[in-house]
Amino acid sequence: MLFSPEPKTRREDLYDFNRELSALVSALRAERLTLVTGLRRTGKTSLLRVALGEAGVTYLYVDVRLSLYAGYRDIAEVFARSLEDLLRREPSLADRLREALRGLKGLDLPGPAGRQGDLQGRLSLPELFTRLNDLGEPIVVAVDEAKELRKANWLRFDRLFAYAYDSLPNVRLVLTGSQFGLLYDFLGLEDPRAPLFGRAFQEVRTRRLSPDEALDFLERGFSESGVRCPGDLMEKAVDAFDGIIGWLTYFGHLYVTGGLRDLEDVVRAASSLALEELRNLISSLRSPRYAVILRALAEGRAPWAAIRRRLEDHEGRGLNPATVSQLLGTLVKLGIVEEVNGEYAIADPVYRLAASRL
Predict the structure, then answer these.
(1) What does pTM read for this prediction?
(2) Which member of 36, 49, 223, 310 has the greatest number of CB atoms within 10 A?
(3) CA 248, CA 240: separation in Å to the nearest integer?
(4) Distance between CA atoms of residues 278 and 271, nearest Å
(5) Quick check: 43 and 19 in contact, CB under 8 A?
(6) What Cα–Cα distance (Å) separates residue 24 from each residue in 5, 27, 183, 228?
(7) Residue 232's pLDDT is what?
(8) Helix, strand or coil for residue 195?
C-alpha cells in the first residue's frame, strides 16, 4: 500500500522511482561500494529494501538505527539479528552459513538442534566479513544509516569497509545516509588520508517528487485505499510538503486511518515530530547557535551575511567568519540546510515550520 507507514519491500508499493530502483539494482549486482543518499523521508530505506529483493542477491541487511549508542554490545546484537534474518530468508544457504560461522566468538545462531555458538569473547566483525566472503559467492552487506557507526569508539568502521573493499572480493557494501555530508566525512571518500579515499563507488540519490508526481501519488494512494479526498485538499498537501514522499505518506495515512482530515492538523502533528528531532539534534551539537540559525532560516532563505548578522545580534558581539561558515557547513552536512545560489534555506518545509518553534 502506498500509504503504509513502514518501509516498503515490494516494487508495487514504491511508487514510480523506477530510474533510481534500476540504478540501485544494477549497483547491487556489480559494484563493490554503493551509497544511497538523500534528504530525510525521501524513501532511502524503502528503495534499498525493494532493490535488495529485486536484485536476486544474497544480502545481510543491517539497520544500525536500532543501536542506541553504537557500543560494542549494541552493534554486535544488530549484526546477530541480521544474520538470523538471513538464515530465515535463505534456508538453502543455512547449513553453509552455519558451517562458515562455526567457532566465531560472540555469536549464537539458531540451528536444527537449538541455538549454537560461542558467546564467550567479543564478535570480531573483520572475521565475520571474512567468513561471509569465504562462502564463495557474492553477498551484499547493506548498512542502513551507516553514519551512525562513526560514534563507535571500539572499531574504525571506515577501516573495516576499506579492508572488505580491498581484500574480500565477494563482499559488496551498500551504505545509506540521510546526513550524506556526514556519511562522506565518516567514510573519508574525499580525504587523501582516509582508508577508502580513491576507491570507486556508485551513488544513488533519492529525490523530491515534482508537484505533478506528488499529486499523482496522493490520487493513487487514496484510490488504492478506497477513500475519497477532495482535489483541492490534495493540492494544498502537495504545496505544504514540497515533494517529500515521507510527509505525503504521513498525510495520506492519517487521513485514511487516523481521522485527521484537516491539513493544518496533519502539518502540526508532522512539525511536532520534526521539532523533537531538531531539539535532539541541537542538544547533540552542544551549541545554542544552531537554534539561532534555524530560527532565522524559518523566516525564509538568507545569505551568509544575514545569518552572521543574526548571530551577532543575538550574542551582542562580532563573530569570526570562519565560525559562521563552520556552523552553516555542519547544518548542510546534516541535511537540514541546503545552499542554493549563495543563499541558505531549510530543505524540508516541515522542518522549516518546526524551526520557528525552537
Answers:
(1) 0.92
(2) 36
(3) 9
(4) 10
(5) no
(6) 22, 5, 18, 35
(7) 96
(8) coil
* Beta bridge pairs of residue 258: none
In this predicted structure, what is the pLDDT of residue 260? 77
328 or 122, which is more confident? 328
Cα separation of the two ends of the chain: 35
Query: In this predicted structure, what is the pLDDT of residue 250?
Result: 96
Domains of the chain: 11-205 (3.40.50.300), 211-261 (no CATH), 282-355 (1.10.10.10)
pLDDT in tens, 220-256: 999 999 999 999 999 999 999 999 999 999 999 999 9
| Distance (Å) of CA 119 to CA 79, 105, 122 | 14, 6, 8
The pairing of strands 33-37 and 171-177 is: parallel
CB-based contact 271:354 (threshold 8 Å): yes
How much is the mean pLDDT over the chain? 93
Q: How far apart are CA 22 and CA 17, in angstroms?
A: 9
Check if the beta carbon of residue 293 is closer than 8 Å to that of residue 256.
Answer: no
